[in-house]
Amino acid sequence: MVDEFLGTHTPRLDDKGRLFLPARFRGALADGLVVTRGQEGCLYVFPTSEFHRISQEMQSVSGSAKGVRDFIRVFRASAHPDTPDKQGRVTVPQALRAYAGLDKDCTVIGNGSRLEVWDTARWTQYLDQVMPAYSAYSAGSEEVVPGL
């Protein structure tokens, strides 16, 4: 079991829209997972239990703000439950592939309690945008995460 998803992996989608999960994460996702729309144009992949925990937290948030309602609605409506096959593949529905711009080359990053699936070109573009700020944070010119 994985305590936390970490690292960067570069699997490919096959012709049927199936993604080969990185081998180190397959055990944590073997009992099921949920793929849904993420932020910045990626997909989020949660173990089923983590998705349900987050979904329950969303239930307790006030729905009086339209942005909150919109986010929760799209997050849940685009959710696709799946169980990896014996080869560790999961099917990514066409609507989610289109949202994330996934065709063949993917980058899967571990981000704590979830995986993020990016189109590799989009991930590279994202890194090009954020690395100057990250370098500034690393140089100590600004504290981003208090205490780190």
From TrEMBL:
In the record, the note on similarity to other proteins reads: Belongs to the MraZ family.
According to its UniProt entry, this protein's organism is Phycicoccus duodecadis
Q: Where in the cell is it found?
A: Cytoplasm, Nucleoid
Q: Which Pfam families match?
A: MraZ (PF02381)
UniProt subunit comment: Forms oligomers.
List, for all copies, the residue spans of the domain called SpoVT-AbrB: 8-50, 79-122
Per its UniProt entry, which superkingdom is the organism in? Bacteria
Example GO biological process term? negative regulation of DNA-templated transcription initiation
Residues in the signal sequence: none
Which UniProt keywords are present, listed alphabetically?
Cytoplasm, DNA-binding, Repeat, Transcription, Transcription regulation
Supply one GO CC term from the record: cytoplasm
UniProt keyword annotation of Cytoplasm present: yes
Q: What is its main location?
A: cytoplasm
Named from the GO MF annotations, one term is:
transcription cis-regulatory region binding
Q: What is the name attached to this protein's record?
A: Transcriptional regulator MraZ
